[in-house]
Amino acid sequence: MADMGQHSFGKFQPASPRDLPRELRQSRAIEELVIGEVIEINGSGSQVLIDSSRLEALTDDPDPSISMAGQVGSQVKIRLGNRWLLASVRTQRMHQREAGLIVAQIDFLGEGDEEKLTGKIYNFRRGVTRYPVPGTKIYAATSHDLKQVYASDGRANIEIGTVYPTNDTRGALYVDAMLGKHFALLGSTGTGKSTSAALILHRICDLAPEGHIVMIDPHGEYSAAFSTNGALYDVSNLAMPYWLMNFEEHCEVFVTSEGQDRQTDSDILARALLAARAKNRIAESISKLTVDSPVPYMLSDLLANIQDAMGKLDKSHSTAPYMRLKGKIEEIKADPRYAFMFSGMLVGDTMASFISKIFRLPSENKPISIIDVSGVPSDITSTVVAVLSRLVFDYAIWSRNEPQRPVLLVCEEAHRYIPASDVEKSVVRDVLSRIAKEGRKYGVSLGLITQRPSDLAEGVLSQCGTIISMRLNNERDQGYVKAAMPEGARGFLDSIPALRNRECIICGEGVAIPIRVSFDNLEEERRPASDDPSFSELWNQTGQEEEILERVIGRWRNQGR
After folding, report:
1. Pairing of the two strands 466-469 and 137-140
2. Percent of the chain scored above 70 by pLDDT?
3. Residue among 561, 219, 182, 196 at smallest CA distance from 371
4. Per the record, which residues fall in region Disordered (predicted)?
């Protein structure tokens, strides 16, 4: 390695006098931002040599982008003719033989044109068409450069926060690109994930008040956040007709046996279900009625069909499968916890009105429906989510010849419904995996929110075109996310364990280039009810315990919230 004094970036002349021509002053100002040079080139990135004394000289610069130049996760630029290449610093290490020199790896992000008079970047685009050669100078990127890079290109977008390390550059998501190819919001518990999800959805609702968003809320957190601009549903007002279930979903609820017995029970249920659906007048107009057809039927008819089939058995056949099915159906029919779905009042043909209210058709300035499933009995929660998800997908398929109404389906705690383990067949896992793979063809967007991305089914995360990753404490989760993100974002990914609360890395289709963003503060009335309790404060309060217990036990016994 040559002596440091031989490097073109090693020494600088004093700043230009004020009476120099403007172009020369501008050129000298740009040259003062030189921090090193390229020493190695490969396809996606390069190695560069950085002068640590130059970095130290820039630390007091009022521009935060310049003052943090050269640090891991920061941006640098490389001049190539009349273009600027932008790159992100991935790693740093001291040079083995030359004191004061740092060897860094960089990932190329994109390129923009250079303004002749000012030397600033404009017309930035992703990707690199021409690479620099070893010896080319590298410069610190300024906040103005980053504003040009992150500036909207005219596409519909929502601003969600401030780009790191700037103070005023706004971070935006391109809505059509983000929703068109699905997105995932990841983050460990306590990182501000729920509030950030609410912020993104509020911004989308503000941008598109006639939109159609369905959110599955397993903890009842989001009702408070969308009380003014959303339609809120739980077990008290959901009224989801049981006959909307397809055959697989019926089996998941009514068939309790395993192995060969499960197949036997399923065959009996299929015959009884088809006969029950056929009794409805709507079935007369359907040329190809199947067990999956969403035609209303009465549970009493289903039970009667099973009873009739059992009565026709000869002595060589066992009645056990019929009794198992009858027992389970009668149990669910009589249990008030299941009334939101299996009530006798839900026999009428309410399919149009149910889809209308859940999908917000029309939205009536409340574009999001929050489906609070926290009060749903745990043994059928996954089935309820499966039915809602499948309805979104089926509606999109059967409405292809109509004016398009795209729907965004958001799943909180997604690892519950699309688990990596496939030991047991899961209807909800299958339908959400299918939406992840095929949904965008039909105008269905999927938003996955989870704290355990490594527990998601393999391939689902890679189907998400935009990944928004907050801090992840688990090393396995970090590795899983890194594998799903593009190569150019690797420099940002290394900082995932060090992110602050309500800070994230965004990469993919929804942004021009990978960015690190600090989320905006959300108004108090728009936040979800997800704050952690203050033990030190609440444990210093006392009184009214008897009244509290009485009210809680009343709700507990009545299964009411």
Report:
1. unpaired
2. 90
3. 219
4. 1-21
